[in-house]
Design a protein that fits this description.
Strand content of chain A: 15-25%
Strand order of the largest sheet of chain A: 3-2-1-4-12-11-5
Largest interface: A-B, 59 and 59 residues
Structural class of chain A: alpha/beta
Number of strands of chain A: 12
Order of helices and strands of chain A: EHEHEHHEHEEEHEHEEHHEEHH
Shape of chain A: globular
Oligomer: homodimer
């Protein structure tokens, strides 16, 4: 039992709940024998979905909840009042140690607020950070922080660099990950007040591989593995990444459908192009962990399909096996 | 003579100087009879380039300068010490009213510093702003500010919105331009301290068409015409735009060259695809104006070719004809 990992899947959160969430959970237990999932949400709806699959019944559990937090609800109020929601019940299980992790595709703000308020921070961590993985030309990078707490301090950014390095090395398998700070020029004297204050602290920080400033232009080429920035800038990067990508892909597809000649051409390149664009799709890396909490909270896209849910559950498994939180704590006591 | 516009072209600035700068200047005088260009820089090198073309000699002037500011030089020092550089001499001509505008593809920092220190701000303008045009799916948007002065105040952002609106409407011809502020959510209560302070000021600001918060994800789709943000965020947006675009295009091209089948397909779609990607190339809109100065300073890409130089000179023409600076001043006295 000690090798088992218990992951809550918020079956009611996200655009494709409960169908894709349940499917993703079933695929995860089918794929790895050490995974036990707990589906929180409306038991009738969950049972209906589960009935579609054959799976090891002893490793799929349902915890019935009578409430759902919707995407549009104000987060703080939702967490406070909806005690029997699939998200709050799941977070409580992580807090009590009844589960190791929770995966949710629901209300982002509520996941962030609930993660901090219910699961709680690791002692010494000043601010937890949401760290999605973004695709690059040759792989991926971790973008930390993209959470909801803006106006960060330099000491927060240093902890982001440390937590991001541990995650990138031990969950995503990147040896000695290169850490860069988002800046508007490569020189050390460039930047806003926050970056100027953080830069020397990162330079002196032991145990991380700090490579200096990173300009946004160079992020897609994969110039570093851990991209450190405060949450407002991180949000802009994450969302613009998606926006430019989807607009360009939309435009390219439009140019392929222009006339008969281009349609024939499109048929010839379609599989190669699809493969290329798939490589630039972040969802293959699973959801974004909220790092710095006592348990693991993973936020996946609201539009997540089963595959992303499964990947996110596997991510939780690596997180536990690699003892990421213990490593983060070690950083703090080293200081 | 009163309808003539006199534009300095810094012939020594940028990766393609002096060749493409001179060529762009010649094309501009050939194209519009009301344009007079003044080429600043090494007269022998400029004459050698000019000898390649036939053009109306009375509207192309050379002002010899013995120095050049290189791309890597620290800006403040360069502006202070290189009094006989092509950039400083050109800026001095704008200051003295001997020219209406200057176009430079040189050292960005030096253009920003020199513009402010030599040409000077319009009285009442707290901070000039660099406002490049970025391509969107259906046209373009003005991104203001992308300059070097970070950590802006709310009052700066309000002036950016006003100056950007005037420019977008009267130089780029967008009626009643929609103004948005870059934010991490659509709701008014979201944002960092600066955005929260600025939002109500923009709501109450007369004479602009404020549509509220804009998420970075929606910028490429063209959700607003004037995108207001402080310079650090503006820089990140501008550079990530270029980075994601060029990485994706590079990847798409790679997928087309994969094998014989895709190469045949590529040949069939190539002209349609080129046309599409051209629409997503910001350089067709000319350079970025530095708004809020007593004269007009336009910064074009360091890699500018003749076409972008010509477009930038035409942009200066509209700027003068439409009396943009008088309109900006009117905003200030209206308050």
């Amino acid at each position: 039992m000690s090798d088992m990992i218990r992951v809550v899947v918020d079956a009611m959160g996200g655009d494709n709940a409960p169908g894709e969430l349940v499917k993703g959970a079933v695929q995860a237990v089918q794929g790895h024998e050490t995974i036990h999932v707990i589906l929180t949400g409306d038991q009738d709806a969950i049972k209906e979905e589960l009935a579609k699959y054959s799976y090891p019944k002893d490793r799929v559990e349902i915890v019935h909840c009578s409430e759902v937090i919707s995407t549009a609800e104000p987060p703080v109020n939702a967490i406070r009042t909806k005690k029997d929601s699939s998200l709050v019940v799941g977070l409580q299980m992580v807090k009590k140690g009844e589960a190791d992790a929770i995966v949710s595709a629901g209300n982002s703000g509520a996941i962030l607020v609930g993660g901090q308020a219910i699961v709680g921070r690791i002692k010494g961590i000043e601010r937890p950070a949401l760290a999605p993985v973004i695709p690059t030309e040759n792989g991926c990078s971790l973008l930390i922080d993209c959470g909801a707490n803006v106006d960060a301090r330099a000491s927060h950014l240093v902890q982001f660099a440390q937590m991001g390095s541990v995650y990138m090395e031990h969950v995503l398998g990147v040896k000695n990950p290169r850490v860069g700070i988002v800046n508007i020029g490569a020189e050390e004297e460039k930047g806003n007040a926050l970056v100027k204050e953080t830069f020397p602290l990162l330079k002196e920080c032991p145990g991380i591989n700090f490579i200096g400033s990173v300009e946004a232009r160079d992020i897609p080429a994969g110039v570093c593995d851990v991209i450190v920035c405060e949450a407002f800038v991180g949000n802009v990067i994450l969302k613009l990444y998606e926006g430019v990508g989807s607009t360009l892909i939309h435009m390219v597809k439009g140019s392929l459908m222009k006339n008969l000649k281009t349609k024939i051409g499109a048929a010839l390149i379609s599989s190669s192009l699809k493969e290329t664009l798939k490589a630039f799709d972040g969802s293959q890396y699973g959801g974004a962990p909220l790092l710095g909490l006592k348990g693991l909270v993973v936020k996946t896209h609201g539009s997540s399909k089963a595959r992303e849910v499964t990947t996110s559950i596997y991510q939780c498994e690596s997180f536990k096996k690699q003892r990421i939180n213990e490593m983060i704590k070690d950083y703090l006591t080293d200081k």
